[in-house]
Design a protein that fits this description.
Radius of gyration of chain A: 15 Å
Largest sheet of chain B: 2 strands, antiparallel
Order of helices and strands of chain B: HHHHEEHHHH
Number of domains of chain B: 1
Structural class of chain B: mainly alpha
Number of strands of chain B: 2
Shape of chain A: flat
Number of domains of chain A: 1
Order of helices and strands of chain A: HHH
Shape of chain B: flat
Distance between the termini of chain B: 41 Å
Number of strands of chain A: 0
Largest interface: A-B, 31 and 37 residues
Number of helices of chain A: 3
Radius of gyration of chain B: 20 Å
Helix content of chain A: over 70%
Strand content of chain A: under 5%
Distance between the termini of chain A: 35 Å
Oligomer: heterodimer
Chain lengths: 61, 217
């Protein structure tokens, strides 16, 4: 059971859980903005840039 | 497995995994077509994005020198030695080690491929076309294996991983945003723009991390 859970964790989350968490938050923000009159298309590209860079920086210290 | 432990058990394991994969695809394929397209795009986009960023992160770290490039020849030699030293247990006339390793390898890697093919196919409304693309890729890999006749040491693995990461991240952003209710400026025409953006930031990160690596060294 533990190995099964680990497989799914590795499959979906990978090495850095913060990336997956950041993406979930970005989707929430996008969905929220999409219900308003403010354009929301820029949120995901910006979030991807930020979470990827922060994740890379943690390794390249 | 075939080279080290014998082809029969390895091929039976790979064949059994292929049948299991076909059953999973046959069950999941029709089920995906009844899910509303917005929900499908949101879920598929989020998953592609998470997968894509995993690939891209590793490829950027390898390309910039912060993570060792995989030495395929060394990995092949190590795994071949491990396989040769594993004990021989026989079940149903098969070398159980060769069978299970081949089964697991084909099933797990195949699941990822099946997921990508099914989701790309269903979100664009053509699973057969996506399956055709996957079939062409399989034929190309088999052909390359026959022509090269050695482990995939000469294949630029990290460049391929980088390209796959960029593509998955691009489609993840595009479909995920659409699923979350976004209207892209210019509709589908904005997809090349997203691709160019992801490619540029990724190359920019490689350059920045290379400089950082040189500064630290």
């Amino acid at each position: 059971m533990k190995r099964f859970a680990k497989f799914w964790w590795d499959f979906l989350v990978g090495d850095d859980w913060r990336v997956a968490a950041g993406i979930v938050v970005a989707f929430g923000l996008t969905a929220l903005l999409a219900t308003t009159s403010v354009p929301a298309w820029w949120v995901l590209p910006l979030a991807v840039t930020a979470v990827l860079w922060l994740s890379l920086r943690r390794v390249a210290r | 497995m075939g080279l080290t432990r014998g082809w029969r058990s390895a091929l039976v394991g790979a064949g059994a995994a292929t049948i299991a994969l076909a059953a999973i695809v046959a069950a999941l394929g029709p089920a995906l077509t009844v899910i509303p397209i917005e929900v499908l795009r949101l879920v598929v986009g989020a998953l592609l994005l998470v997968f894509g960023l995993q690939w891209l992160r590793k490829a950027i770290l390898r390309a910039s020198g912060w993570r060792a490039i995989r030495d395929e020849a060394a990995v092949f030699a190590r795994e071949r030695a491990e396989a040769a030293s594993a004990s021989h247990v026989e079940h149903a006339g098969l070398d159980w080690y060769a069978f299970t390793i081949s089964f697991k390898g084909v099933l797990l890697e195949g699941l990822e491929v099946a997921f990508i093919v099914l989701t790309f196919g269903s979100t664009q409304g053509s699973i057969p076309l996506a399956a055709l693309g996957a079939g062409a890729a399989v034929a190309l890999v088999v052909l390359t294996g026959i022509v090269v006749r050695e482990p995939l040491g000469r294949v630029p693995e990290n460049t391929l991983a980088f390209a796959v990461g960029v593509m998955l991240t691009t489609f993840g952003i595009f479909w995920g945003a659409e699923g979350a209710g976004v209207d892209w400026p210019g509709g589908d025409a904005s997809l090349p723009g997203v691709l160019a953006f992801v490619l540029l930031i990724s190359l920019g990160f490689v350059t920045a991390l290379r400089r950082r690596k040189l500064a630290v060294a």
